[in-house]
């Protein structure tokens, strides 16, 4: 029996994706003694259409290896790597807006000269995998900012909690301190699949009712 799928009304989410050039903050990664609770996957949802296109274009970035660890040890070396990649990608890509849907040429691209939040996120994931981090610990996530703008970030699952690499800041933050509403996240088991983020205390995730999710069984 096929598992139920969930469709989500987010057609304009990435058209308004936030972009930023050289982020203003230059903060070092701050490690908490007691990491925040991890992001919890809820129901399966449809992958963003542009991620489906991305996987066709970059199949190696959508492969999964069940033998990999699903989190990284947040050592000083790993912390320095995360900071370096986050800052370097933020500085390397010039910000621009894309019109997904009206321009078929606009798509998620690794290491473009200019791009939006989607390009920053997939580029960071690609570079961290190339640097030896397990893809299962590196997950793209769809969020909504306090102003209601759709946004894509990279979540790194570590022994100190789930950390967010974001093109809007060079500071690497815990997912629960971003102020974002968490909509869905890439699966750690299969990089092609996505899940709704289970609502957490403090309202960091958005419920199905809030976003008029429609269940559809096959």
Write up what this structure looks like.
The chain has 218 residues and is an alpha+beta fold. It has one domain (5-216): Roll (C8orf32 fold), CATH 3.10.620. The protein contains three helices and eleven strands. It has helices spanning 49-57, 76-92, 117-130; strands at residues 5-7, 41-45, 94-95, 114-115, 138-144, 150-158, 161-166, 169-174, 181-186, 194-197, 214-216. The strands form three sheets. The chain has a seven-stranded antiparallel sheet with strand order 2-10-9-5-6-7-8. Strand 6 and strand 7 form a beta hairpin. It is globular. The model is unreliable at 1-15, 21-28 and 206-218 (pLDDT under 50).
Task: Tell how many strands the DSSP assignment holds.
Answer: 11
Named CATH architecture: Roll
Cross-sheet strand order for the largest sheet: 2-10-9-5-6-7-8
What is the CA–CA distance across the termini? 8 Å
What does the average pLDDT come to? 83
- CATH topology tier name: C8orf32 fold
* Percent helix range: 10-25%
Largest sheet composition: 7 strands, antiparallel
Strand content: 15-25%
As a whole number of angstroms, the C-alpha radius of gyration is 16 Å
Low-confidence stretches: 1-15, 21-28, 206-218
The structure class reads: alpha+beta
The CATH class name reads Alpha Beta
What number of domains?
1
Instruction: List SSEs in N-to-C order.
Output: EEHHEEHEEEEEEE
- What's the total helix number? 3
Shape: globular
Task: Explain briefly what this protein structure is.
The chain has helices spanning 49-57, 76-92, 117-130, and strands spanning 5-7, 41-45, 94-95, 114-115, 138-144, 150-158, 161-166, 169-174, 181-186, 194-197, 214-216. It is of the alpha+beta class and 218 residues long.
């Amino acid at each position: 029996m096929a598992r139920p799928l969930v469709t989500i009304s987010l057609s304009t989410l990435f058209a308004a994706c936030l972009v930023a050039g050289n982020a203003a903050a230059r903060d070092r990664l701050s490690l908490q003694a007691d990491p925040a609770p991890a992001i919890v996957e809820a129901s399966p949802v449809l992958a963003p259409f542009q991620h489906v296109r991305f996987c066709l274009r970059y199949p190696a970035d959508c492969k999964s290896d069940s033998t990999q660890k699903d989190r990284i040890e947040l050592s000083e070396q790993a912390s320095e790597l995360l900071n370096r990649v986050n800052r370097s990608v933020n500085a390397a890509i010039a910000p621009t807006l894309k019109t997904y849907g009206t321009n078929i040429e606009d798509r998620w691209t690794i290491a473009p000269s200019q791009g939006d939040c989607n390009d920053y996120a997939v580029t960071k994931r690609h570079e961290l995998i190339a640097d030896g981090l397990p893809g299962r610990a590196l997950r793209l996530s769809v969020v909504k900012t306090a102003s209601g703008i759709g946004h894509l970030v990279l979540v790194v699952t570590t022994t100190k909690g789930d950390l967010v690499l974001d093109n809007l800041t060079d500071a690497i933050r815990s997912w629960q301190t971003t102020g974002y509403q968490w909509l869905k996240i890439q699966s750690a088991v299969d990089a092609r699949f996505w899940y709704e983020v289970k609502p957490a205390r403090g309202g960091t995730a958005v419920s199905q009712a809030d976003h008029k999710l429609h269940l559809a069984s096959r």
